[in-house]
Amino acid sequence: MPNARTDILGVVDVQPTFMPGGELPVAEGAAVLPVVNRLLAGLFAHAFATQDWHPRGHLSFASAHPDRQPYETIELPYGPQVLWPDHAVQDTANAALHPRLDTSRIEVIIRKGYDRNVDSYSAFFENDHRTSTGLDGWLRSRGMTRIFLTGLATDFCVAWSAEDAVRLGFEVVVIEDACRGIGLPVAGGHTTLDQARDRLAALGVRFISSTDL
What would the DSSP string read from start to end of 20-62? Predict the structure, then answer.
């Protein structure tokens, strides 16, 4: 069972924009909602959420690059960047946390991707790996040492959050049935989901089911 004093549930980007019918849908994305709500209702005393929050014309949008298509990768000053369909645009209904998500137990919401020139997958840093969201300090000030991650998408925002959390000294657990991934194809017949799982396992991240709790 989670420790009420040191464990926290992280709810990553559970927004309509990433669900079927949204601008950047993750297959079966809405399936995380009942699992996350069940975890929020009874198992965790503490929780935080992240919210993708892009201005119009964000540099990560393919529409900001007239000669490019969604899901192409380009080089930006901070490194490789996948170009996405316009999504999570500030002050739109689909950028809000999902209306069926139980936010009554969520103590803080970290908005990310609001800088027009830098994308942000991780709950802890912008994609330049230097600009902090402030979540690290917030967690430490409350004595949190272990993070259980849920949400969308497993191979991008969940994975990057997990990697940064480990490097910052937190123990990390990914609750797999409370996550869904995009699974873009990569070399060797693999997907970005395969790559993310391998990276995280090598860092010591544990993968469990919500029923294990």
Answer: TTSSSPPTTGGGHHHHHHHHHHHT-S-EEEEEE-BPTT-TTBG
